[in-house]
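quick one, 334 residues, struct below
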Amino acid sequence: MKKNIAIVMGGYSSEHDISIKSGGIVYKHLDSEKFNVFRIHIYLQNQGSKNLTNGIWAYLTEDDKEVPVDKSDFSITFHGKKINFDCVFNAIHGTPGEDGLLQAYFELLGIPQTSCNHYQAALTFNKRDLLSTLKPFGVQCATSFYLNEEDPIDKKRIVEKVGLPCFVKANRAGSSYGISKVYKEEELKTAIENSFKEDHQVIIESFLEGTEVSVGVITYKGEVTVLPITEIVSENDFFDYEAKYEGKSQEITPARINEEQRKKVSQLAEDIYKIIGLKGYSRSEFIFVGDEPYLLEVNTTPGLTEESILPQQAKAAGIELSELFESAIDEALR
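---
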């Protein structure tokens, strides 16, 4: 009997539209001979609290009509028939699909889902907590300074700690929303205010000069697998939104790095995956300082469009999108 698979997409963050594209690609490539596939759109109708009880949850029919989801058990009723789901394919970037909220909800309901568990999602989504957790394991990171929204902004102290130029980032955001590269002390306040539009926590990091790479680690057919490495060459000042989604970068797979660098960063990405206890997909970002990889962040629901980095890496490894997506469901159901 075919399994009922819900693809959750959208979400409550600035990454909503990117998630819709990712979910659409999963929907397109999952084998309809093996699965009954349902698109579930989660979104905020109006600005408000970004919690699970708020927002619209709806099944999108073939003609894009909305059928409400019963949040009490994550089911739908369609043509008079109640439909429950055997597995959820999580394609939400940002809250509530990447920060642990949906994962905890599905764990409580006992519904398997393709991304990591709720604790791991919450930890990896919080850049400063993740880096603080990994440093005792010898993972190297940029020097950082943390700010909460109510904290005073001591620009001199920040510059003394991280130097210039530096990066100002929203602590819990993705797709380069809320990130600025700052060259002058007087630019800090505007950059921090920009980051606070995305999150009430900010992380300010020293600038690392070197080759930037992205390393996908997945569980594929029961084995933790490191995918071919991608080198990021941005036409802009850094790998910002334009570079990621509007063609202002080169994403070169396999990366043009030496064998020592390849071995080091592959092993480190796999170690991080295992130390944290991840499952499903992950994509970790690093910058090489000499031959040493420095961790920037870990994404646990990376982009899944045909142009996204993880699918590019899977293709380089000889894995078709249909195989990549089906394997994630098989692992969740295992």
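The radius of gyration is 20 Å.
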